[in-house]
Known about the structure:
Layout: E1 2-4, E2 10-12, H1 22-36, H2 53-75, E3 78-83, E4 93-98, E5 110-111, H3 124-136, E6 147-159, E7 165-178, E8 188-194, H4 203-215, E9 219-220, H5 226-234
Helix pairs in contact: 1-2
Amino acid sequence: MSGRAAGGREIRVNDYRIPEIPEIEQAYRGAHRALETIMPESFGFLPEADLECGSVLSQLPLLVDEAALVVAAHLGPYIGWQAEPHRGDLHLVPAGLDLDNDGELGFGPTLDELATAADYGDSSLEQAAQIYARDAGRDFASELAGIWLLMLAPVSGVASDTDLWDCAGHLAGFMILYDRDEDGTYETVGHMWTARAWRRQGIARHLLHEARSRYGTSRFEGPFSADGEAFVDATREP
């Protein structure tokens, strides 16, 4: 085999072949087969049995990224925040993130930076918006604008250097409010989503209560999915 180095100098290698790494290859193949079982139908990939070693090594990271979205779709994306020390059972935590007014209208715990700002659009909110877009059959994910009402599902909390705890868990659901007529009242629910494993547990109703009591929210903006339309009908105010 031959090639050219910088400056055009030709390189020749006798009996060129990719070195074999059987232990690593078998581990990758096992992981690849395991992840294949949870890939959604919409995700295109070649099964491990049809791949040479190099292709298995290069394709596995794509399956890992997709698997992370599968987990996030069911439990909600990972999210971190700070909260007062807590004893006893853990409970869902509502929060409001104001992305229009420098946080002026927000409430609840302080979220960590990865909630809204991460490399490659991989923040907690952007992941949730991406999953929501898939579930709703939308071409584009929701922008980071408006007031995001969040339901945080804590998994762990550890003491920090301050009086607050560093908490970690899942973003179990969100509702996005907009001030469409620009009168200072966030009257419109533009989007709402609940992670699949958390559905039918009152999360959307709780967020709607927060929206109505805190921001005077009074209307929904379509189009709606079948579940969304049923929710709107069931929670319509008299």
